Amino acid sequence: MSGSEISAYFVAHSHKPGDTAKLCISADCGLVDVKIVRQGSIDLCVEEHQRVPVEFQPVPDAVVSEGCGWQTTLELEVGSAWTSGFYLAEIRASGRLEAPPALAFFVLRPAQRTADIVLCLTTSTWEAYNDFGGANAYSSGSDSYSAGAPQVSRHRPMAAGILRKPNDAVRIANVETQGEDVPWLAYAVSKGLSIWSGGTGWWNWEWPFVRWAEAQGYTLDYICSDDLDRDPSCLEGYSAYLSVGHDEYWSWEMRDTVEIFARSGGNVIFLSGNTAFWQVRWNEERTQMTTYKSRFRNDPVYKSEDPSRTTGLWSNPVTGRPENSMTGLSFTRAGYARMAGCSPKGLGGYIVERPEHWVFEGTGLRYGDVLGRKDVIIGYEVDGCAYRLVEGRPVPTGEDGTPDATVILGTAPAALMNRDNAPPGFYPEDAMTDQEVVADQLLGSTDAAALQAFKHGRACLIVEDRANGGFLFNSGATDWTCGLAGEDPDVDRITRTVLDRALARCA
Description:
Helices cover 17% and strands 28% of the residues. The protein is of the alpha+beta class. The strands form six sheets. Strands 11-9-12-14-25-24-23-18-19 form a nine-stranded mixed β-sheet, sandwiched between helices. Strands 2-8-7-4-5 form a five-stranded mixed β-sheet, with no helix packed on it. A four-stranded mixed β-sheet has the order 10-16-15-13. The longest helix has 16 residues, at 489-504.
């Protein structure tokens, strides 16, 4: 760190009113100004601190796995009147209003439930992609998908682009040209952003959803991945649990919390893709996340008496808990769309399979129409399930863990990345491709037959109406929220229908 660079992080990701939020800052400019902003349909500044003394705090060599270990610079008393939501600290050298701020965040839970829908921000996935310090769960100091760090710490600043991007930022899905290039990569480099921030973070999906939802009059309470992991009671009293965007990394405890909620009659809404693909473990202090991923056989738990918490795919038979049993879908059965060589000229939307379903009420959609094409909601990462055709329409087989009552409402082609369709150089020779990882962990082989079994995928839009009165809705797509307030009003209408149905049980 040199010049007037500033970096910062909060010690804890989650707080309640009345808590003390500890902000750690490293800077060599002597004094900083700190503004705390709640971001929603409008930005609301709740507190400012001027001329806060700061010191340069070095980044240790083991920062990726062990964290920065910085001293607390500023303690913030979380106001009792602050509204549940996402709070951003903007930190600038004192008097330098024109300078781009350093950013840090925390999520404010309500002291008591104030809404019927709770939105869980996907902070465990943010941590996996965060390459502050030179590495993350994907890569050890390069731009390729090489062997990443098996442990990552949350006591690090977020890499550039995860919490905020320029207004002209391009999407990671190839929306405009329908070519096999990935414009995001060149854009990120040109703007000094982490290339990994294209696949994660508050700015990409969750903030657009929150702006839309609050503008529509929906009231939300907020939690984050940490809360699901450490507090089994955090969903009590809510009508619906909601996840948005890219929700890839889940611990055993996170799944327990959501699945118990669903079994009790709670509604579960995933407006997300690649959901619960990898199992992770947190240390006792919940400051370090373990995720061996493609090298799951190196995880010490794998050779233990109970290997079920091995940090590989949730769909790995050694775990015995495929994500489909919670989400209804799996990335292993779909993959990427409008991304490099994976369906680069695809429709960008769902082919409607069952327009008579309650989800489509008021849309006027018919069988075979394409939902969300203009806004390319089928882009980047998408989830599917094993199915067969019955009278020409898809019905889940259940062989991959998808519940029998699941109804497939729409489909769209997708593919897992391999050496033929990935960006050049994305997979080094000694790294496994996504297709190889799935074949290896589900079938125990990467021979030609195993790879062929996962060569072609299909995203699915699903719903499951449950006997206990609750329902599961899964958009099966990271980019569903790109259709909100977009050119296709049907994405708005369907999202409102789903949220309103969840709220109807509270009336």
